[in-house]
Amino acid sequence: QVQLVESGGGLVQAGGSLRLSCAASGSFFSINTMGWYRQAPGKQRELVAAITSGGSTNYADSVKGRFTISRDNAKNTVYLQMNSLKPEDTAVYYCHALLRVTVEGLYNYWGQGTQVTVSS
After folding, report:
1. Average pLDDT of 30-50?
2. How far apart are alpha carbons 51 and 70 in whole angstroms?
3. What secondary structure does DSSP assign to the chain, as a single string?
4. Rounded CA gap, 21 and 2, in Å?
5. pLDDT tens, position by position, 100-109
6. What phi and psi values does residue 101 have, to the nearest 5 degrees?
7. How many CB atoms lie within 10 A of CB 80?
8. pLDDT in tens, 52-91
């Protein structure tokens, strides 16, 4: 059984910083891409940032220059450093991982979500 466990959300004032962490545990061969998505009330879930096993990154335009994604492959953990936070960053943030669970296939897994609230 595979689990993604997130931590680090909370309440912060505009301009502040938060760091999210997500650790993958369980039985799998390898982790392909890891990333963070977010969903604000009344909106669709959107990609925030993603990172491949080789370290290539991809960011939403709205967070470029403010957020940094990184991963520790030895710990099966992905991080999201969020600086210069804005009220519009308020959302539930979900960790995502594409895992090779069997020799044949890759499967998508999601964390339970962590609330990030930015006050103005």
Report:
1. 97
2. 7
3. --EEEEE--EEEETT--EEEEEEEESS-SEEEEEEEEEE-TTS--EEEEEE-TT--EEE-GGGTTTEEEEEEGGGTEEEEEE-S--GGG-EEEEEEEEEE-SSS-EEEEE---EEEEEE-
4. 16
5. 988 788 999 9
6. -90, -30
7. 25
8. 999 999 999 999 999 999 999 999 999 999 999 999 999 9
